[in-house]
Amino acid sequence: MARLALKVDVDTYVGTLEGIPRLLDLFAREGIRATFFFSLGPDNTGKAVKRIFKKGFIKKVLRANPAASYGIKTMLYGTLLPAPDIGTKRDAIARMREVQAAGHAIGIHAWDHIDWHDRLPGMTREEIDSILGRQHTRFSEIFGERAVLSAAPGWTATALSAEVQQQHGIRITSDTRGGEPFHARRTDGSPSTVIEIPSTLPTLDELLASDRFGASADAREGTIELLRAQVNDAAGAAVHSIHTEIEGGRALAPLFERQVAAWRADGVAFVTLPDVVEGLAGSTAIAVRSLTFATLEGRATPVATGWT
After folding, report:
1. For the purposes of burial, counting CB atoms within 10 Å of the CB of 90, is it exposed (0-12), middle (13-18) or buried (19 or more)?
2. Cα dist from 294 to 155, 210, 299, 306, 307, whole Å
3. Distance between CA 178 and CA 289 in Å, rounded?
4. Other beta carbons less than 10 A from residue 298's beta carbon
5. What are the E-state strand segments in the chain?
6. Could you give the 3-state DSSP secondary structure of residue 115?
7. Does 65 score more than 90 pLDDT?
8. pTM of the model
9. H or E segment at 10?
10. In this predicted model, what pLDDT tens digit does every residue of 219-266 receive, in sequence order?
11. Distance in angstroms (rounded) separating the CA atoms of residues 288 and 185
Protein backbone atom coordinates (compact mmCIF):
# COMPACT_ATOMS: atom_id res chain seq x y z
CA MET A 1 0.00 0.00 0.00
CA ALA A 2 1.33 3.45 -0.97
CA ARG A 3 1.96 5.80 1.96
CA LEU A 4 1.82 9.57 1.82
CA ALA A 5 2.72 12.19 4.44
CA LEU A 6 1.09 15.56 3.87
CA LYS A 7 3.30 18.35 5.21
CA VAL A 8 1.21 21.49 5.65
CA ASP A 9 3.14 24.77 5.73
CA VAL A 10 1.27 27.73 7.25
CA ASP A 11 3.16 30.76 5.94
CA THR A 12 0.87 33.73 6.60
CA TYR A 13 -1.82 35.29 8.79
CA VAL A 14 -4.52 34.73 6.16
CA GLY A 15 -3.33 31.15 5.68
CA THR A 16 -3.76 30.63 9.40
CA LEU A 17 -7.25 32.14 9.51
CA GLU A 18 -8.72 30.83 6.26
CA GLY A 19 -6.58 27.99 4.95
CA ILE A 20 -6.40 25.98 8.16
CA PRO A 21 -10.20 25.61 8.51
CA ARG A 22 -10.60 24.52 4.87
CA LEU A 23 -7.94 21.87 5.20
CA LEU A 24 -9.18 20.68 8.60
CA ASP A 25 -12.66 20.21 7.15
CA LEU A 26 -11.29 18.23 4.21
CA PHE A 27 -9.04 16.08 6.39
CA ALA A 28 -11.89 15.37 8.82
CA ARG A 29 -14.17 14.24 5.97
CA GLU A 30 -11.46 11.99 4.54
CA GLY A 31 -10.08 10.69 7.84
CA ILE A 32 -6.61 12.11 7.12
CA ARG A 33 -3.94 12.96 9.69
CA ALA A 34 -1.33 15.42 8.46
CA THR A 35 1.62 17.37 9.88
CA PHE A 36 1.16 21.15 10.26
CA PHE A 37 4.01 23.65 10.60
CA PHE A 38 3.15 27.15 11.83
CA SER A 39 4.60 30.61 11.26
CA LEU A 40 4.50 32.21 14.70
CA GLY A 41 5.88 35.76 14.36
CA PRO A 42 5.46 38.71 11.96
CA ASP A 43 3.88 38.18 8.54
CA ASN A 44 6.19 40.15 6.24
CA THR A 45 4.90 38.58 3.01
CA GLY A 46 5.00 41.90 1.18
CA LYS A 47 8.79 41.96 1.47
CA ALA A 48 8.95 39.01 -0.93
CA VAL A 49 8.54 41.58 -3.71
CA LYS A 50 12.35 41.68 -3.89
CA ARG A 51 12.20 38.19 -5.45
CA ILE A 52 10.50 39.65 -8.51
CA PHE A 53 13.93 39.70 -10.15
CA LYS A 54 14.43 35.95 -9.66
CA LYS A 55 13.96 33.93 -12.81
CA GLY A 56 10.53 32.28 -12.91
CA PHE A 57 9.18 34.01 -9.81
CA ILE A 58 6.56 36.12 -11.58
CA LYS A 59 5.19 33.20 -13.58
CA LYS A 60 4.99 30.97 -10.51
CA VAL A 61 3.25 33.62 -8.43
CA LEU A 62 0.73 34.65 -11.07
CA ARG A 63 -0.28 31.09 -11.87
CA ALA A 64 -0.83 30.37 -8.18
CA ASN A 65 -3.37 33.25 -8.28
CA PRO A 66 -2.03 35.25 -5.33
CA ALA A 67 -4.89 37.76 -5.19
CA ALA A 68 -7.33 34.93 -4.59
CA SER A 69 -5.04 32.71 -2.51
CA TYR A 70 -3.29 35.28 -0.34
CA GLY A 71 -5.42 38.42 -0.59
CA ILE A 72 -4.23 41.91 -1.42
CA LYS A 73 -3.62 42.85 2.24
CA THR A 74 -1.23 39.93 2.73
CA MET A 75 0.75 40.99 -0.33
CA LEU A 76 1.30 44.39 1.32
CA TYR A 77 2.19 43.20 4.84
CA GLY A 78 5.59 44.46 5.95
CA THR A 79 5.69 47.18 3.29
CA LEU A 80 2.65 49.43 2.84
CA LEU A 81 0.82 47.71 5.70
CA PRO A 82 2.28 46.78 9.11
CA ALA A 83 3.16 43.12 9.55
CA PRO A 84 0.69 41.34 11.86
CA ASP A 85 2.32 39.29 14.60
CA ILE A 86 0.55 36.01 13.92
CA GLY A 87 1.20 34.25 17.20
CA THR A 88 -0.30 37.09 19.27
CA LYS A 89 -3.62 37.21 17.39
CA ARG A 90 -6.48 35.49 19.24
CA ASP A 91 -8.15 34.31 16.04
CA ALA A 92 -4.89 32.85 14.72
CA ILE A 93 -4.13 31.12 18.02
CA ALA A 94 -7.61 29.60 18.00
CA ARG A 95 -7.10 28.18 14.50
CA MET A 96 -3.72 26.70 15.46
CA ARG A 97 -5.14 25.07 18.55
CA GLU A 98 -7.91 23.54 16.44
CA VAL A 99 -5.23 21.70 14.50
CA GLN A 100 -3.80 20.32 17.74
CA ALA A 101 -7.27 19.35 19.01
CA ALA A 102 -8.00 17.50 15.75
CA GLY A 103 -5.07 15.16 16.41
CA HIS A 104 -2.68 16.28 13.69
CA ALA A 105 1.07 16.41 14.27
CA ILE A 106 2.27 19.99 14.85
CA GLY A 107 5.58 21.81 14.63
CA ILE A 108 7.36 25.08 13.91
CA HIS A 109 7.67 26.55 10.44
CA ALA A 110 9.07 30.02 11.10
CA TRP A 111 9.27 33.10 13.21
CA ASP A 112 9.51 35.48 10.23
CA HIS A 113 9.09 33.34 7.09
CA ILE A 114 10.54 35.91 4.70
CA ASP A 115 13.52 36.80 6.88
CA TRP A 116 14.61 33.16 7.36
CA HIS A 117 14.13 32.30 3.70
CA ASP A 118 16.08 35.30 2.45
CA ARG A 119 18.84 35.66 5.06
CA LEU A 120 19.61 32.31 6.69
CA PRO A 121 22.85 31.50 4.80
CA GLY A 122 24.40 34.72 6.11
CA MET A 123 23.11 34.48 9.69
CA THR A 124 25.45 33.97 12.62
CA ARG A 125 24.97 31.21 15.18
CA GLU A 126 23.76 33.86 17.64
CA GLU A 127 21.08 35.10 15.22
CA ILE A 128 19.82 31.60 14.49
CA ASP A 129 19.78 30.72 18.18
CA SER A 130 17.84 33.90 19.01
CA ILE A 131 15.23 33.22 16.33
CA LEU A 132 14.76 29.61 17.37
CA GLY A 133 14.49 30.67 21.00
CA ARG A 134 11.62 33.02 20.15
CA GLN A 135 9.92 30.34 18.08
CA HIS A 136 10.08 27.75 20.82
CA THR A 137 8.90 30.12 23.52
CA ARG A 138 5.85 31.12 21.51
CA PHE A 139 5.07 27.56 20.44
CA SER A 140 5.06 26.52 24.10
CA GLU A 141 2.82 29.46 25.00
CA ILE A 142 0.28 28.51 22.34
CA PHE A 143 0.28 24.74 22.61
CA GLY A 144 1.44 24.04 26.15
CA GLU A 145 4.23 21.72 24.99
CA ARG A 146 7.70 21.85 23.49
CA ALA A 147 8.11 21.57 19.75
CA VAL A 148 9.98 18.52 18.45
CA LEU A 149 9.12 18.99 14.75
CA SER A 150 10.32 21.75 12.44
CA ALA A 151 10.21 22.57 8.72
CA ALA A 152 12.27 25.41 7.28
CA PRO A 153 10.67 28.16 5.16
CA GLY A 154 11.38 27.62 1.48
CA TRP A 155 13.48 24.55 2.31
CA THR A 156 16.26 26.89 3.44
CA ALA A 157 18.65 25.06 5.77
CA THR A 158 22.38 24.84 6.45
CA ALA A 159 24.71 22.73 8.56
CA LEU A 160 24.63 25.51 11.15
CA SER A 161 20.84 25.72 11.31
CA ALA A 162 20.64 21.91 11.62
CA GLU A 163 23.12 22.06 14.50
CA VAL A 164 21.19 24.76 16.37
CA GLN A 165 17.88 22.96 15.76
CA GLN A 166 19.28 19.96 17.61
CA GLN A 167 20.35 22.16 20.51
CA HIS A 168 16.76 23.38 20.84
CA GLY A 169 15.39 19.85 21.18
CA ILE A 170 14.08 19.30 17.65
CA ARG A 171 13.93 15.59 16.80
CA ILE A 172 12.45 15.60 13.27
CA THR A 173 12.88 18.17 10.51
CA SER A 174 11.56 18.46 6.98
CA ASP A 175 13.92 21.12 5.65
CA THR A 176 15.04 19.64 2.34
CA ARG A 177 13.92 18.28 -1.01
CA GLY A 178 14.42 14.84 -2.52
CA GLY A 179 15.72 11.46 -1.44
CA GLU A 180 15.43 9.22 1.60
CA PRO A 181 15.46 10.29 5.27
CA PHE A 182 18.92 11.14 6.58
CA HIS A 183 20.94 12.80 9.32
CA ALA A 184 22.46 16.14 8.29
CA ARG A 185 26.13 16.82 8.93
CA ARG A 186 26.78 19.56 11.45
CA THR A 187 29.42 22.27 11.00
CA ASP A 188 32.14 20.03 12.44
CA GLY A 189 31.19 17.15 10.14
CA SER A 190 29.55 15.05 12.85
CA PRO A 191 25.99 13.77 12.24
CA SER A 192 23.05 15.55 13.78
CA THR A 193 20.79 13.37 15.91
CA VAL A 194 17.79 14.97 14.18
CA ILE A 195 16.14 12.87 11.47
CA GLU A 196 15.55 14.85 8.28
CA ILE A 197 12.51 13.80 6.20
CA PRO A 198 12.75 15.45 2.75
CA SER A 199 9.76 16.46 0.66
CA THR A 200 9.79 14.09 -2.30
CA LEU A 201 7.03 15.40 -4.59
CA PRO A 202 6.89 18.63 -6.59
CA THR A 203 4.62 21.25 -5.07
CA LEU A 204 1.48 22.44 -6.81
CA ASP A 205 2.80 25.96 -7.35
CA GLU A 206 5.97 24.52 -8.94
CA LEU A 207 3.89 22.44 -11.34
CA LEU A 208 1.67 25.39 -12.22
CA ALA A 209 4.76 27.43 -13.14
CA SER A 210 5.26 25.11 -16.12
CA ASP A 211 3.42 25.63 -19.40
CA ARG A 212 2.36 21.98 -19.29
CA PHE A 213 0.13 22.52 -16.26
CA GLY A 214 -0.20 26.26 -15.81
CA ALA A 215 -1.43 27.44 -19.19
CA SER A 216 -5.16 26.97 -18.46
CA ALA A 217 -7.71 25.67 -15.96
CA ASP A 218 -7.98 22.44 -17.95
CA ALA A 219 -4.21 22.00 -17.94
CA ARG A 220 -4.19 22.25 -14.15
CA GLU A 221 -6.14 19.02 -13.90
CA GLY A 222 -3.09 17.17 -15.25
CA THR A 223 -1.33 17.74 -11.92
CA ILE A 224 -3.71 15.22 -10.34
CA GLU A 225 -2.55 12.28 -12.41
CA LEU A 226 1.12 13.23 -12.17
CA LEU A 227 1.08 13.41 -8.36
CA ARG A 228 -1.10 10.30 -8.21
CA ALA A 229 1.47 8.33 -10.20
CA GLN A 230 4.42 9.63 -8.18
CA VAL A 231 2.86 8.53 -4.89
CA ASN A 232 2.04 5.09 -6.25
CA ASP A 233 5.54 4.68 -7.65
CA ALA A 234 7.37 5.80 -4.48
CA ALA A 235 9.64 3.18 -2.91
CA GLY A 236 8.88 4.37 0.63
CA ALA A 237 6.54 6.96 2.09
CA ALA A 238 6.11 9.93 -0.24
CA VAL A 239 6.17 13.39 1.37
CA HIS A 240 4.14 16.18 -0.21
CA SER A 241 4.38 19.80 0.94
CA ILE A 242 1.18 21.80 0.64
CA HIS A 243 0.36 25.32 1.80
CA THR A 244 -2.66 26.74 3.57
CA GLU A 245 -2.48 29.67 1.15
CA ILE A 246 -2.42 27.47 -1.99
CA GLU A 247 -4.15 24.13 -1.47
CA GLY A 248 -6.13 25.68 1.38
CA GLY A 249 -6.84 28.90 -0.52
CA ARG A 250 -10.12 29.72 -2.25
CA ALA A 251 -8.71 29.49 -5.77
CA LEU A 252 -7.05 26.06 -5.63
CA ALA A 253 -8.80 24.22 -2.77
CA PRO A 254 -11.24 22.46 -5.16
CA LEU A 255 -8.32 21.14 -7.23
CA PHE A 256 -6.66 19.79 -4.09
CA GLU A 257 -9.91 18.12 -3.01
CA ARG A 258 -9.94 16.27 -6.34
CA GLN A 259 -6.31 15.32 -5.76
CA VAL A 260 -7.13 13.83 -2.37
CA ALA A 261 -10.09 11.95 -3.87
CA ALA A 262 -7.76 10.43 -6.49
CA TRP A 263 -5.31 9.28 -3.83
CA ARG A 264 -8.17 7.88 -1.79
CA ALA A 265 -9.39 5.94 -4.82
CA ASP A 266 -5.92 4.40 -5.07
CA GLY A 267 -6.06 3.25 -1.46
CA VAL A 268 -3.22 5.54 -0.35
CA ALA A 269 -2.58 5.52 3.41
CA PHE A 270 -2.04 8.99 4.88
CA VAL A 271 0.59 9.22 7.63
CA THR A 272 2.29 11.91 9.69
CA LEU A 273 6.01 12.66 9.70
CA PRO A 274 6.39 11.00 13.13
CA ASP A 275 4.74 7.92 11.58
CA VAL A 276 7.38 7.97 8.85
CA VAL A 277 10.15 8.04 11.45
CA GLU A 278 8.50 5.24 13.41
CA GLY A 279 8.44 3.18 10.22
CA LEU A 280 12.23 3.53 9.98
CA ALA A 281 12.77 1.65 13.27
CA GLY A 282 14.63 -1.58 12.68
CA SER A 283 15.52 -0.66 9.10
CA THR A 284 19.01 -0.29 7.74
CA ALA A 285 21.18 2.52 9.11
CA ILE A 286 20.03 6.01 8.17
CA ALA A 287 22.53 7.79 5.93
CA VAL A 288 24.47 10.88 6.95
CA ARG A 289 24.53 13.60 4.30
CA SER A 290 25.85 17.12 3.84
CA LEU A 291 23.37 19.87 3.12
CA THR A 292 23.78 21.70 -0.17
CA PHE A 293 21.58 23.96 -2.27
CA ALA A 294 20.08 23.01 -5.62
CA THR A 295 17.70 24.56 -8.15
CA LEU A 296 14.39 22.87 -8.91
CA GLU A 297 12.21 23.36 -11.97
CA GLY A 298 9.39 25.77 -11.16
CA ARG A 299 11.08 27.25 -8.08
CA ALA A 300 12.73 30.65 -8.35
CA THR A 301 15.14 30.24 -5.41
CA PRO A 302 17.48 27.35 -4.51
CA VAL A 303 16.40 24.75 -1.95
CA ALA A 304 18.38 22.69 0.53
CA THR A 305 18.99 19.06 -0.29
CA GLY A 306 21.05 16.18 0.99
CA TRP A 307 20.65 14.29 -2.25
CA THR A 308 23.70 14.78 -4.44
Report:
1. exposed
2. 10, 18, 10, 10, 9
3. 12
4. 19
5. 3-10, 35-39, 105-110, 149-150, 172-173, 182-184, 195-196, 238-243, 269-271, 287-289, 292-294, 303-305
6. helix
7. no
8. 0.94
9. strand 3-10
10. 999 999 999 999 999 999 999 999 999 999 999 999 999 999 999 999
11. 6
